[in-house]
Amino acid sequence: MAFSRDRDFLFCGFCGNMLTLSSVKYATCPLCSYKRSTKEIAGKEIKYQVTSQDIRRELGISTFGEGTLQLATISRKCEKCGNDEFEYTRKQMRSADEGQTTFYTCTKCRDTITEN
């Protein structure tokens, strides 16, 4: 298949609506009945790359990076530096019927301990 730089070959030239393949010979606009020959469309493809950041930007959703994330803390002695406070987060790493994995990070030396 050929990659088309003209991204509009699947859309109506008049109203911009997406064309539907109503027959073997023509793609037709369901709104205004514009027709385009399937010979113009055959063998072409469009590739899009949409990231989660693009979706958040379009929907007006802010990311965690824009704010301050406060982690839960626990009293636990660090074997590396002797500090007695860890921050922790939990994540579901395996299937839903198994427990969460807890990640502990020392607030002083940033050493990490993982518990399943």
From TrEMBL:
UniProt: Zn(2+) 2 binding residues: 78, 81, 106, 109
Domain of life of the native organism: Eukaryota
UniProt KW keywords: DNA-directed RNA polymerase, Metal-binding, Nucleus, Transcription, Zinc, Zinc-finger
Domain TFIIS-type: from-to ranges: 74-114
GO molecular function, one term: DNA-directed RNA polymerase activity
UniProt-annotated binding residues for Zn(2+) 1: 12, 15, 29, 32
Main location per the UniProt record: nucleus
UniProt zinc finger (C4-type) residues: 12-32
GO cellular component labels: RNA polymerase I complex
Assigned protein family: Belongs to the archaeal rpoM/eukaryotic RPA12/RPB9/RPC11 RNA polymerase family.
Function: DNA-dependent RNA polymerase catalyzes the transcription of DNA into RNA using the four ribonucleoside triphosphates as substrates.
Name of the protein described by the UniProt record: DNA-directed RNA polymerase subunit
Protein species of origin: Trapa incisa
